[in-house]
Design brief:
It is built from 13 helices and ten strands. With 348 residues, the chain is of the alpha/beta class. The strands form two sheets. Strands 3-2-1-4-5 form a five-stranded parallel β-sheet. A five-stranded mixed beta barrel has the order 6-7-8-10-9.
């Protein structure tokens, strides 16, 4: 079965090939030579050119526009349509007086003016789309004033990246009820997850499969909605850049535990819900002088130090615990240190 792209390639090859034949005949007349060879050569070049370039001027631009429209928020799409409509009306109103100018200005300027006004209207309205939504809600009969930039009926999304799905803790966080809204998983994140699950490396393959299992559990057991979406950011290619761009379009946060994505998103003004920051924030806080009980797991870096871990994963370094490996000790907290890797408790 022929694809749509192949069908358009054939049409383009025929049309441009015929045009090449006429061009070859014209070139032969210019040099006063036999037109047969020129017609054949130019026709073959036209056919080849048509086969190559036709999809880039027909099918692929249409597909790109379609992908952008699918992934575009409804408010932005409405703003573009209204801006185009206003610009074309303004161009039509100004076309008559501009057409009275002497040639060639009277023939060219009305068309140029229509394009310029349409473009400016689209740019202005898309930049102020939230003000437009607020205005529409404000003039609607019986409507209550909107006091925030985010409209009441705008969906509350949380974008999930690949790393936080593989991590798995997001499923437990969702079950606690602290999250509100819809957890949104773009198709390009799901595709990356599938690629990891199909990796030849056994560790990456296990992580990818675990992520798919976590996603399946979230879809069936999560108390908040989990949605797979076709929304995409076609202007960028990397998954992290797509997530940041999509978050900016939807005005929603990204949930991740990826440090680099966290930094890039913050630099671009996107709110980040970092699972590692949440885990550190809910760990039990100990003050110097408090008592705790911890099992010694291994020796520390200093002489006679022992290292153990609390139930929440907090590392405890106990002075004098190096000789008690494998035993539970009662220790007194001396100092609490917050590091980039987490919280460390020193005791004796």
């Amino acid at each position: 079965m022929f694809s749509v792209e192949f069908f358009f390639r054939l049409i383009g090859a025929v049309i441009i090939g015929i045009g090449g034949g006429f061009l070859g005949d014209y070139a032969a007349d210019l040099v006063n030579n036999d037109p047969s060879a020129f017609i054949v050569i130019f026709s073959m070049l036209g056919v080849l050119t048509g086969l190559i370039i036709t999809p880039y001027i027909t099918v692929r631009p249409v597909r790109a526009v379609r992908r952008n429209l699918i992934g575009m928020p409804s408010g932005r799409l409405v703003a573009i349509i209204i801006g185009l409509f206003i610009g074309l009306i303004a161009g039509a109103l100004l076309a008559l007086p501009v057409s009275l100018l002497p040639d060639p200005f009277g023939e060219v300027l009305p068309m140029v003016l229509a394009f310029v006004l349409a473009y400016l209207s689209i740019v202005v309205l898309t930049a102020r789309q939230h003000d437009l939504q607020t205005l529409v809600k404000g003039i609607r009969p019986g409507a209550t004033p909107v006091k925030s930039d985010k409209t009441v009926d705008e969906p509350n999304y949380i974008l999930l990246d690949t790393s936080v799905i593989i991590d798995g803790r997001v499923a437990d966080i969702a079950k606690t009820g602290f999250l509100r809204g819809t957890m949104l998983i773009p198709n390009f994140v799901l595709i990356e997850l599938q690629h990891i699950a199909d990796s030849s490396d056994s560790i990456r393959r296990q992580r990818g499969r675990r992520g798919l299992e976590i996603l399946s559990i979230m879809q069936s057991d999560s108390p908040i909605p989990v949605q797979i979406t076709d929304m995409d950011a076609t202007e960028v290619r990397e998954v992290d850049s797509k997530l940041v761009s999509l978050a900016r379009h939807l005005h929603c946060p990204i949930m991740t535990n990826d440090y680099n994505l966290n930094r890039v998103a913050e630099l671009q003004g996107v709110l980040v819900l970092n699972v590692n920051d949440l885990a550190n924030a809910i760990k039990v806080t100990y003050l110097p002088g408090e008592q705790l009980r911890v099992k010694m797991i291994q020796k520390g870096t200093e002489h006679d130090q022992g290292v153990g871990y609390l139930e929440d994963g907090t590392m405890v370094v106990v002075e004098g615990g190096g000789r008690q490996i494998g035993k539970k000790l009662d220790a007194t907290v001396t100092k609490v240190l917050q590091t980039s890797a987490g919280r460390m408790v020193f005791a004796k």
